[in-house]
Amino acid sequence: MPTLEKSTVGYTFANETGAKDMQAAYRSGTDLPTADKQPVDLAPQRTKVLKAKPAPKLNPELIIKSFNTWAFKREQPGNPERLVPMVEAAARAGRPLEFVLYWGKGPRSEIAAPDLACLDYLGQLAERVRQAYAPGAIFRLIFTDTHASLNGHPAEVVDAYFGAIDAAAQARGFASARLSDVVAFAREIGADAPEEEPTGEVLASLMACAAKWYRGEGSTAQGALDYHRMNMVEKRAVAAAFPEAVFVTFNGSEFRDLFPATMPIFYMYSLRRGVGVKPWFMDAGFAAAKLADAETPEAKSSEAKSPEAKSLEAKSLESASSDASSPAGQPVS
Does domain 61-324 match CATH 3.30.160? Predict the structure, then answer.
């Protein structure tokens, strides 16, 4: 049996090992016997896998509510069931909501206060969307050069006016296109329209507008028919070019047949709530008066009214503004 002998260094095994002490036999703690245990790999315990938190789920209804309010709309949207899929598709792609609208040419040849007020109003809607949905919204103005040509406006005047509007729109982060280019694109992809006859009510409205604005060749009746025919092609072209956008119009639903059948339709005021006159048909004085009306106590107190009361008041205001502005113009642009 081995015995332990005391030395100046420590205890040693006198008869079983040639080692002088425990430190000589086991030079470090890692050399100590482990009863045949396998070493444990601690690396997985030292490394933490950080999982990304899921992004908060967007509520399409809240995004739609940000712009679908009586502060902007003149009546309930057309094709409202298409709004939710449109918002969901934009959210999945992380892109802004897109709104497209016609911008026409009236008697003025230069940009003026009504145009700028309208662009600012559109910007307010875009900002409301951005507050509810980080990618925000983008407006694309479709300049109706085809309609301006039909109405007899000189090409150089049309180009100058649309160029000025385009510069102001771009300064606000908007985009633009010419309607003639949109139609050309649609024809390239085979989105031509079959012949459609206007209803009696629509034709009567178009003829009344043509009597005020049509300066082209032929009779006003022919001008109205040509205008309707153009719109049947153009509404399909717009739907083909911008299938994931909302179509905005300053008109009411009585002209629904002239708008894209497959797109959500947002019936919107032009300068502020209660004003539906298109800015290109306004003179600067009329626009200033309507905007000043918005600052009166009566106008501010009306914000608390019910949707039904707002709708009735809006129709009354719109009727009055149409009378004051001279004619309301062609229904689409």
Answer: no
